[in-house]
Amino acid sequence: MRLRLIPRDERFYDMFIEDAANVLGGARLLEAMLRSYDVLERRAGEIRDAEHRGDEISHHIGHRLEATFVTPFDREEIHALISGLDDVLDLIEEAADTFVLYRIDAPTGVAIQQASIIVQQCEQLHEALVHLREYKGLEKYWIEVHRLENEGDRIARQAIADLFDGGTDAVAIIRWKDVYGLLESTIDKCEDVANIIERITIKHA
According to a count of CB atoms within 10 Å of the terminal CB, is the N or C end of the chain lower? Predict the structure, then answer.
């Protein structure tokens, strides 16, 4: 009986991998945007396209979920996983748009560091989902996501402290506090997704 159901399960796992790969693609686009800092509108548009693609993947998973009697794990866990991945990409898109809307002349080294951390976290999440169906050996992925979150938290706290210490004008303080906060929220949301993967793994191992 179980062997007959495996192909059905496999399709879900493949869609989770596709979803995570799309999020990773969005994260890499954000980092590339900040490192090159040219044609911002076009680069932000590419991230928006990735976000729309993420919505399509989520809807596809949702429709399959409604039509499937036996799922690889609890429906609530599947919803939490795809919602978490959606949230990461939404925040990436919002961060990219904020650089355009605030007409920021150039990104700081801190913002680029934060974007790099997001990419590294998304790489770990993608790898975790590639191996999720085995439900073992995944600890290293969520441990690294947590470590990166701690690093991101430290960087963001220091950067915001430096804003207030450095004699920066009030408008710039508001802009950069928003930008750093958005990037930090994205890093935190990646950790939330890692926590969901950890819960699923422990429950089903």
Answer: N
